[in-house]
Design goal:
The chain is of the alpha/beta class. The protein is 27% helix and 22% strand. The chain has helices spanning 2-14, 40-53, 87-90, 92-100, 179-182, 233-242, 261-273, 283-286, 293-298, 316-327, and strands spanning 27-32, 59-62, 73-77, 80-81, 106-108, 123-126, 138-143, 170-173, 191-199, 203-204, 224-228, 247-252, 278-282, 302-306, 308-314. The longest helix is centred in the first third of the chain and has 14 residues, at 40-53. The protein is globular. The termini are far apart.
Length: 334
């Protein structure tokens, strides 16, 4: 039943039976086939870095999943994070984007298309593959080896079948799955890229990694407790262990978890029970924890955010060339 509904919906958009809104600036959609945990946020940040390096101003349009606010919220305007905006109002992932300093404008709205006319620079749409109401100039879809064997909702985690990859202009594999496995579903002129995750040095809660160019190895010598409120926490654990961090205990929370004093107290006690004086969080969690810095300190617990970014290791030159051609009218002179 779910698959039939998706097929009919896509057919209606393909044939023009359902209307599509077109922006006056280039639109790049970043999405996936599966539900959560595919790396859309780190990939979007990577793409924004690439566009910055090409001197192309970029903006972000997102639904701001998990945010407390309703309707449209302007998070970044003219390259500046609005000081009254909180992580709860913007949503944790949108706030991460805002802190990066990479964007001219960031708007969160649901449905997204209602804000499409508010941009004057090229737009990146976060989680946009299924949001077909908006015309996109480039459709980027992130895939992984899990997608090759998974099932459609509600029996699996797939929002669309692999056949939907024929709508994508760029396929980005986030693990070591072979290109040949996806080739039967790709259109003939689609670009195939591959990314790898890279961990930067940890940072305290009152800071945020704003340098996206130089990567360094994490050096944490004491055993830690790892906490993550993301869709795929095992990927976070894998990154920690690969970088030599000894994870003595971990606590996984639901994706976009909200923190309060009671939960912080519980997590602190849990860390102390396992003799961990250091807690490491994902960057997505860390943006929501600054208000609790004194509480951690009172317990003698050192808290660090662990930034994990994507780097394009296959197809980067072709990706940059594609973006450059699309956005060439917006390139700024140095």
């Amino acid at each position: 039943m779910y698959g039939s509904v998706i097929k009919i919906r896509n057919h209606c958009f393909d044939k023009g039976f359902l209307s599509i809104v077109k922006a006056i600036v280039p639109v790049i959609s970043i999405g996936n086939l599966a539900v959560g945990g595919t790396g859309k946020t780190p990939f979007t940040l990577m793409l924004a870095r690439i566009m910055r390096d090409l001197n192309i101003p970029v903006s972000l349009l997102s639904s701001g999943y998990g945010r407390s606010s309703i309707g449209e919220i302007i998070v970044v305007s003219q390259g500046t994070l609005r000081p009254e905006i909180t992580p709860e109002e913007a949503g944790d992932e949108v706030y991460m984007h805002a802190l990066s300093g990479l964007y001219e404008t960031i708007i969160a709205n649901k449905p997204k298309y209602k804000s499409i006319d508010h941009f004057s620079t090229p737009i990146v749409i976060d989680d946009g593959f299924q949001h077909r109401k908006i015309h996109r100039d480039i459709d980027i879809v992130l895939v992984s080896k899990k997608d090759l064997t998974d099932s459609l909702l509600p029996f699996g985690r797939m929002r669309e079948p692999l056949a939907s990859l024929n709508r994508a202009d760029i396929i980005v594999c986030t693990d070591d799955a072979p290109k040949e496995a996806f080739a039967p579903y790709m259109k003939s002129n689609a670009l195939f890229c591959r990314t790898a995750s890279i961990m930067k040095a940890p940072y305290p809660l009152d800071e945020y990694v704003s340098s996206f160019n130089e990567y360094s190895h994490c050096e944490i010598t004491d055993p830690v407790m790892a906490i993550a409120g993301i869709a795929n926490p095992e990927r976070f654990l894998d990154s920690l262990t690969k970088n030599g961090i000894i994870v003595k205990h971990h606590h996984w929370l639901k994706d976009h978890a909200q923190y309060d004093t009671s939960m912080i107290e519980q997590l602190c006690n849990e860390a102390l029970e396992h003799q961990c004086s250091t807690i490491v969080f994902t960057s997505k969690d860390a943006v929501k924890l600054q208000a609790f810095s004194s509480h951690f300190a009172s317990k003698g617990i050192h808290v660090l955010g662990i930034p994990i970014f994507f780097e394009c290791i296959e197809g980067k030159e072709e990706l940059m060339s594609t973006i450059n051609r699309l956005c060439s009218p917006f390139i700024q002179s140095i």
